[in-house]
Amino acid sequence: MVQNIIDVRNLSKSFDISSKEPGLKGTIKHFFRRQTKSLKVIKDISFKIKAGEIVGFLGANGAGKTTILKMLCGLIYPSEGSILVSGYLPFRRKENFLKNITLIMGQKQQLIWDLPPIESFYLNASIYDLDKFEAKKRIKKLSEMLEIDEELFIPVRKLSLGQRMKSELLAALIHEPNILFLDEPTLGLDINAQRNLRKFLQKYNRETNATICLTSHYMKDITSLCKRVICVHEGAISYDGKLDLLLKKLSPVKEISIVCRSEDDAIKLENSGFTVKNKIKNEITIKIENNSITSSLKTILNNFDIVDLFINEPPIDEIIGKVLIKKDYDI
Amino acid sequence: MLEYRVEIALWAISGVIPFFMLNIWTNNNLNESINISDVMLSRYFLCAFFVRQFSVVWVVFSFEEDSLMGKVSPYLIQPLNPFFRYFAQHLAEQITRFPFALIIVFFFFIFNPESIWIPNLGLLLLSIVSTFLSFLIQFLIQSIVACLCFWTEKASSIERLLFIPTLFLSGLLAPVVSFPSYVKSWIYLTPFPYLIDFPANLLSGNETNISGGLSMQILWISLLFPLFKKIWSEGTKKYTAMGS
Lengths: 331, 244
Known about the structure:
Helix content of chain B: over 70%
Strand content of chain B: under 5%
Radius of gyration of chain B: 19 Å
Radius of gyration of chain A: 25 Å
Oligomer: heterodimer
Distance between the termini of chain A: 25 Å
Largest interface: A-B, 25 and 18 residues
Structural class of chain A: alpha/beta
Order of helices and strands of chain B: HHHHHHHHHHHH
Shape of chain B: globular
Number of helices of chain A: 12
Mean pLDDT of chain A: 87
């Protein structure tokens, strides 16, 4: 039986936020009598993650996804509740815990800006107590997986965003962590770079059985990497479960566009009992429930003269968009 | 690379306050009041320049910027206190500054040939140790102030307050021996005279209490280090990882 590597119970986090009215009057008032209020950004959440799982955290901006990741890796201190990651309390930042995890933030970098990435890699290697031989071996292996070699010797400031992101990944993975916390790792990357990064993460997960917690606003990252998603809405969990179940629940029907041989065939099809979305001459679009798609298509192909047929998947962004604005999903 | 070399050279030149002070002192014959010869005074300010070059600290500014921009976050989840990075950066820059400081010393001796002297080897070694201890004291003081970022966000403003006593009481503007006796006894209880005055006197061969000075440096380090650890441990609980 696979063990839980992350165990979160009744976790909450509050921040003290001060507010200021605009203008000079507001500034003076703010200086002498600052008004602060406590804002609960994470509200009593609980979940468990098994070793080797890839879990996507979904939520609108400000929902609390990144705050959860920051607490899981020990960067910020929880206000209430308990977190156990790999058997450690993250906020204590014990050496053995830190050697087991990594955090990659799409918009932040740890590479030394004026030096080639290879210098940062060797620095990280010594921070994680790797000898030079082992460091060299790992840099070679990871740079092959990430398809970067010449870039290792070019100052970071001269690298493209994609090259920099790959180098960031290498720097963050040189100690071969068991748990990866990725906060929007594909932010700002072009389509090819995004695809390559996803392929790399899949391979890394396959080869090392690492647990990956991921937040991303790119649905492709979530659908191609995560079987399980945790949806966060205003600091609370609105859904925790399999992604395909969520998609089926939110999008129970598929649209089929059919081009018939003649308009008469289209009219016959229109009157045959299917739910019709629209019809233009010999082209007709019908809606079919997911669980009867095979039998319905068989009937159509056997009984009507069909020239062409398309199954339109509803855009995933639209479906997930529904999750981000709803408080609770009971599936 | 040229801009980096120029930057380092400018950094080295920016520490020439002791030479301006030497000029003020000698032109006004102020040294007569404290029974220090012109030669010994010029050696003192040269050594003050040298000590300053290898003990200057700016960690509060680096940490404040990194903290406010969220750059500290990746360092915090590594098994190494982020202040070691700043410590290493300071040491690396000190090594880089060394040749520029030597060039300035060379020109100083060209214009002041009477001040040329070869320091006693034992005193030279002790002054190197003392300069390093001075650097440690300043690094710890600034690191403690830098940790206030976790509460105030603008810790550098507090550092500016500390800059005033550092400037006046460290021996950068005047040797501490020139202060009235009743003031001096108080000054020697603070960490400031052990930042510049003590190592500079040691290196220049002026009369100074070597064991007393080194002991006070070690005492201040042993007081400041646990304070830094405590404030760091409390501060990181307040860290909100803003900007990331």
